[in-house]
Structures are given as structure tokens and as C-alpha cells.
Amino acid sequence: MKTKIFSVLSTAVVVGFAASNAFATECIAPANPGGGWDFTCRSIGKILYDIGEVDAPVQVTNMAGAGGGLAFSTVVNKRGSDNDLIVAASSATTTRLAQNAYGGATADQVRFVGAIGADPGVIVVAADSPFQSLNDLVEAAVADPNSVAFAGGSAVGGFDHLKPLQVLKAGGLDDITKVRYIGVDGGADAITQTVGGFTQAMSGDMSEVVGFIKAGEVRVLAVLTEERVPGFEDIPTAREQGYDVVAVNWRGLYVPKDISDADFEAWGARLQAVADSDAWAEQMAANGLAPFTKVGGDFQSWIDGVIAQTEDMSRQIGVIQ
Amino acid sequence: MADLFANLSLGFGIALSPFTLMLAVIGCFLGTIIGALPGLGPSNGVAILIPLTFTLGLDATAALVLMTSVYYGAMYGGRISSILLNIPGDEPALMTTLDGYPMAKNGQAGDALVISGVASFVGAFLATIGLMILAPMLSRVAYSFGPAEYFALYLLAFSTLGGISSNNQAKAALASCIGIGLAMIGLDNNSGMPRFTGGNLHLMDGIDFLVAIVGLFAIAEVFFFIESHGKDSALGVKLEKVTIPFRDLANSGWCMIRASGVGFIAGILPGAGASLGSFLAYMSEKAVAGKDGKFGTGVAKGVAAPEAGNNAAAGGALIPMLTLGVPGSGTTAVLLALLMTLNITPGPTLFTDRPDVVWGLIASLLIANIVLLLMNVPMVKIFVRILQVPPSVLIPGVTMVSFVGIYSLTGSYFDLVLMIGFGILGYICRKLDIPTVPIIMGILLGNAMENKLRDAMVLSGGDWTYLFSSAISTGLLIAAVLGFIAPMFLRRYITKPQRISD
């Protein structure tokens, strides 16, 4: 019996140490296994190897902490010129950079390679809600900003909070600080609060609401993309209802700043190859992502625009001074 | 009803694969050992083994099967050291020492082990049935829980826990406050500003509760071992042969069923959990039996009631965890952590979104139960022998697993330092008889409670009467206040039973 206990203990030790070996290309997922960044690293890493863009399997390192800030500061301070390192990023990365939530770090301390898929933002109400269209909701909120409370899966000032504020701003509401928002524990919880009648609308990602659409519990008033989302053609965009707001939770990568331009362009080409692969198309479909490919200089300028807009809005609602 | 069987067959389809079945057997075995080892309860067992599920790359269902088997196994195993050593393997097993150890002293150690094994089975089995039938119904309830109701529910969890886990309400309240205070470290959800981090990026996400759990339980245990130079670990009672005492079993049949009912309801109450279940089951059976019952002198019912109660509570505690995301006990709190790291958000939609996870889990609970009954009744001698592993081997092993496990969480030495810090805190708390479970609850639920209160204030525009706006929240708040105050007055009648010192 002693030997059994020992074998369990020693297994724990062996697997514990095996996980910390580093070789070949490394992809840092700045969160624990299971989340979106982990998914980005694992699926992009696997496809990179499968289609022959890298020679050895990509090593995924989970570096959770400070909402991605720990990984960001590690890359900036310790791995600044590592040309075999990629890091998973998303809208949360740029939102937090814009709000100075990474301890003074700024977006220009790394280089953003590109995004190759996105979870579209949505504005959702309960199936029995009096709001039939986005117009109904915006009109009610403009008339009395206190009358519509939103629930979302991110903290106050986070991406889910900014989405409805952008829409309301586009609808002519100037004092967005009056809009009530509660940040709950994930999209499912936010919908529960909305269906339960505690809040009037929910702001989240498409992938979070798919199950509830099928169950008939909710009505999606608008999806915040440029075009309607494949597979959900009956859901109108905010744009076609007259509110020019695009807010998607993109999935992509950044790399250290001090790598050579040639290396940077090589990463862009590799990411493009992943985006064009069938395997990635399958991964996107299985995980509720819509096509959203922006690679290279185009992406960098788009990121700069998003950060500037986020900063402006965050300042208005008082999340940053 | 037809749905129930369709769901159940879906569950068995998942849980009966050879691989998950193997995990169930391994989990039950490890769990029984962990439960039997003094000081290592189900919470510690599950906490210590969580990193293993990541490194083994198990999917959500497999990880859940393994962990719930460990959970149930530890609930079974806790009774072994209670009966043989008069040292409860975990807190809920405390009640089993009251009649179990006297039985062992009377030369009925084998009987006590078999009766408690069967009682554990009855309690856990009935609770799993209850979980199957009631959980889908309770899952609709979540739509009537807004911020005010959740805040009241969390408050109830803290106040009832305080009333049970300590003899002194002030100490339990102090421990809860320490926990809630520690939970305030990290990013503030309502403003995005860091609090109490001292500029340290490692503290931005707050304190990882696994670090706290392993520190407070496992590392504190090591300190106690060092202090006592490893005494108190020899087997106090010889176990000769094991036969099945049919008469005692038949006599305590109704007692087990009643105790299961009491335990199950106690388990559903968040925060109370298995300790409350075994406590209430024992006290109510003692009341039913009256003075002639001779509870406390070594009677079969005195062993059967708390064991059925605590195992039923373990099943009941899964209901609020699965349907509301509110853990009903320390162990389900750890299981909740596991689910969240597997990217499964427990809540009303879990039953429709992930029926594979839920019904696979329920089926695996039924399987684990049967495996455990087979393991614990005929094979009980094997587990008894494990208690003879010298602590000089055991304790270094626990230390090693703790360090490797915590390091593998984030790969930072900072968490190791923090874990040792929690070990010291746990040592001091136990010296001062301050319960550590409320500290864990505080770290785990403190943020959620704060957020719900603040959400309620945002929605109501700062009107505190919003907290009493529904019958549910008002009822819960009243229950919370009563749950905290009542034990102070009842203490003279139902003192928390102390271990027999002889």
C-alpha cells in the first residue's frame, strides 16, 4: 500500500515538472487552461504545426495573472527580443491597455500581429421584453437613462459595459454615466439576471447567448458586426438599424517588440496561413466565432483606433482619470 | 419521469465507459485513503488532486468523475479513523467518533465499520436520487434570484456556517471577516481599480483560494506534526475480524433513512454542508431514541445516523453548487473552483447547456457509491492498514504534493510563499480555536457577496430597502440573522460535541 501512495506522489511530481519544460516555439496564454486565450494558443499552435508552418509542436504556457498583465510585463521586460514567442490576445488586452490596467504598460511596448476570428458583440433582451428592436431600447434609454439597466459578463468599464454605451452614444445619449450596468460572473449569469427581470438588457458575446437563443429565452436586438453573422442571418446588425457600432471580441496574437521586421512579417504570414486553413474554419464554427481576419499594418492601425476610442469612453465614465 | 430515465441513460452512457469507470475506481480508492488519514478531509483531497486533472489533460466529464469519486470516497473514509483512532478524518466525521470509538473499545470495531459503511451508502444513494429529482426543479428557481436575493443567500451561508463550525460565534465571525477581508485584495469589479495589492501584479487577481486552502489545511497540518514530533498516530484499537451484523443493520434501517433526509436538506443550505448534516442527524436521532437509546455509549444507531447524514449532505450540497453556482460545503466550494477552471459555469443553464456533464456526474455518483460499498465493507482491512503508514513518510509526502500542486497552478514562487503564510495563519488559528473553514468561505464568496450588494445598490439607486424587496430575500435575511443568533441561546442545550479524551 505504501508503494501505491508513492506511485501517486511521484506521478504528481513527474507530470508537474514535465509541464515546465520550454523548447521550440512558445505560445503564452495569459490565463488558466480553459478560457479564450488558452483556446487561441492551443488551436493556433496546433494548426501551425499541422500545416507545417513550424517544425516542432508549439509549447503552450499558461501564465495567468492580473488579467493578462503578468504575461504582458514578462514579455516586455524579460522576453523583449524572443523571435520564437507568440502571445494570445483579444479585446480584453486592448481594453485593459487603454485603461492603464497593466501597471503603466502601453500598447506600443509589443507588436500586434493580427486577429483571425472574432466573437461578435450582442445586445439581448428577455423573450417577453417590451423592446422589439434596438430602436425601442435606445429611445427608452435616451428619454430616461435610468430606465434601462444592463448586465454583462465583464467588470464595470470592461468590454461588455462599453458595448451598450457605444450604441447609446451613437443614438444621441450624451450623459452615458447615467446608464446603469452591473458586471456579473459571465454571460450566462448576465442572461439569467435579464430573463429574471432584474435588468432590462444584457450585453455580451454571441457565443455566450447561442444556447439561450435555442432555448427561446431571449431575443437578440442587434449584433455589433459589419455584416450579419453566418448561421444567424435573421439577427440584424446595429449598423443596419442606424447605429454605426462595431464591437467584436477578436482573437489574435502579439509578439515582443524588439524582434526584426523580417521576423514580424514572417509571423504575419504564418498567422494568415492559419486563417486560410480548413482546420481553423472548423475551430471557429465549433466555438461560435465569426470570420474576422486582419493581419499586419492594417491590424495595427485598427488596434490604435480601438484603444483611442476605449480610452475616450473610459475617461467619460470615470474608469480612468 | 420519462425524461429522467432518458437523461439517466445519457449519463450512464458517458460514465460507464471503461476509462471513466477506471477513474471512478481510482478516485474512490484515493478518496477513501485521503478521508481515512487524520486531518486530510474531502476538501484537502479534492484540492490536492485538482492540479493532477490538468496535468493529465482530462476533459470536463472525466475530471468531474474523478473528483466526485474522491469526494464521496473521502466522505466514506472519514469514518475509519474516527472509529479506530478517535480522530476524525474530517470535520463531518467528528460525530461518528461519539459512538464509533466506544464501540471499537467494546470490541465491536468491525461492526461499527460495517454499519457506518452501509449507512454511508444509504445516505449517499438517497441523496443522489434526491439530486436527480429535485435539481432540475431547483434550477428554475435561479431566475428568481437577483442581486438582493444572492446577497441574502451569501449572508445566510456565512451566518449558519459560523453557528456550526465553532463553539464561539465571535470567533467564527472573526474568521469570516478575515476571509472577506482577504477577498478584497485584487481588482475591484465595480471600478476596475486595484485594492490592497501594493502594486504587486501577482495580487491583481486576488488570492487564489486553492493557495489558501492548501496552506490553511495541509501546511498547517505539517506544522502540527512538527510540533508533536509525530506522536498520536499509532492504531489505538486492534481490528480482529469483520462480520456483517445483520441485526444491528435491520434495527437502524429507519434511522438511516430519517438521517438521510435531515442530512440532505442540511446539505442544500449553502455554507452549512456535511458537518451540519451529520450534526443534525445525530442530534435528531438522539432525540428520537430518548434516554434509553444510550447514545454516546457505543450503539449502532449512533454510528449509522451521522454517517448517513453526512453522506446525504454531501449529495445535497451538489444542488446549490450545480444550479446556482453557490457551494453548500467546503468540498463543493473546491469542486466549484474545478468547474470554473474547466470553463464550465454552474448555473441554471448548466442542465440544458451541458447535460453530458450533469447527468454524467449523477451517473458517476451512483457508480461511485456502489464501488465504495464494495470497497468499504469486504475490503475495510486494507484501508485500516494504510493508517499504519508512519507519519514520517506521510507528512513529507503531503508537503511535497502541496508544493508541486500549488507551483503548477501559476508557476510562480510567489504563491508558494503565500501558501506558507496561510499555513502559519492556519496554525495560529487552530491554536486559538478559530475555525479556518469560514476563512476559506470568505476568500471564496467574499467578492461575490460584495459584488451582489453593490449590484443591488446600483440597480436600486442606493436604496437599502431594495434588499427586502422580495419574499425570498427577506426570508433569507431573517434566516441569516436567526442562524447566527440562535446557537448562542441553544448552546447550553446542544453544545458542539467534543472528542472523548481518555
What does this structure look like?
The complex is a heterodimer of chains A (321) and B (502). With 321 residues, chain A is of the alpha/beta class. Chain A folds into 2 domains: 21-118 and 248-316, Bordetella uptake gene, domain 1 (D-Maltodextrin-Binding Protein, domain 2, 3-Layer(aba) Sandwich), CATH 3.40.190; 119-241, D-Maltodextrin-Binding Protein, domain 2, CATH 3.40.190.10. Chain A is built from 11 helices and 10 strands. In chain A, helix 4 packs across helix 11. The N and C termini of chain A lie far apart (62 Å). Residues 1-22 of chain A have low confidence and may be disordered. Chain B has one domain (2-490). Chain B has helices at 2-15, 18-36, 42-55, 60-85, 96-105, 109-141, 147-165, 169-183, 209-228, 246-251, 253-268, 273-289, 300-316, 318-324, 330-341, 350-353, 355-376, 380-386, 391-410, 413-431, 437-460, 471-490, and strands at 186-187, 194-195. In chain B, helix 6 (109-141) packs parallel to helix 13. Classes of the chains: A alpha/beta (321), B mainly alpha (502).
